[in-house]
């Protein structure tokens, strides 16, 4: 069993490397990834009278969430359009392994694109971070959950717009009730319940603790646990949706 797990991990790593080399290391993708954090930061920061340090949790949360969930959507839809996705299906590899490999690539992209601008801003502003280690952990699990979300929604898409439409329908409302712009406690009670079910809420909370020391270590660990559970759940959903799409032809 251990050998089988190792073999599947090796196959997933190959899929991740292939996606990274073809889609994520290209000049347009890298430029989009570097430009996105700037727009996110300006959107969150301007007019709110926040210091750079106070704005960092929002910047990191938005960048990890959007970059991690978007890039995988593009890759799988393009492969279906070009017909190259069928080549992977012909390999001796499970659909869960395929989904995991693509999620790894999306995770690495989201983690890298989030970490670089955050580190640069911390250095330039000389902001004091409560725990750099916990910050990296928070970004990592946030990017992983976001990558899983993108895979779950794009698993059956044959064109980019087919995947991006439902993804944006979910992501945009999530931004406004996740604690990014207003405290969750200020929301109506029914929205508070919904907010705590969303992965972005746990991303924001974990990064607020790692950067600003808000909440507690127990809350941080709960947030990380929830993000890990979401990542696993989303990957299982992605594999199941891939299976159903193949059955339909």
What does this entry show, briefly?
With 249 residues, this protein is mostly helical. 81% of the residues lie in helices and 0% in strands.
Structure description:
This protein is mainly alpha-helical. It has one domain (2-248). The protein is 81% helix and 0% strand. It is built from 10 helices and no strands. Helix 1 packs across helix 5 (95-125), helix 3 packs parallel to helix 6 and helix 3 (52-82) runs antiparallel to helix 7. The protein is globular, with a radius of gyration of 18 Å.
| Alpha plus pi helix count | 10
Rounded average pLDDT: 83
The general outline is globular
Structural class: mainly alpha
Secondary-structure blueprint:
Blueprint (H helix, E strand, L loop, with lengths): L1 H23 L2 H19 L6 H31 L2 H5 L5 H31 L6 H23 L5 H17 L12 H7 L3 H14 L4 H32 L1
Helix pairs in contact: 1-5, 2-3, 2-5, 3-5, 3-6, 3-7, 3-9, 5-6, 5-10, 6-7, 6-9, 6-10, 9-10
Characteristic key phrases:
mainly alpha; 249 residues
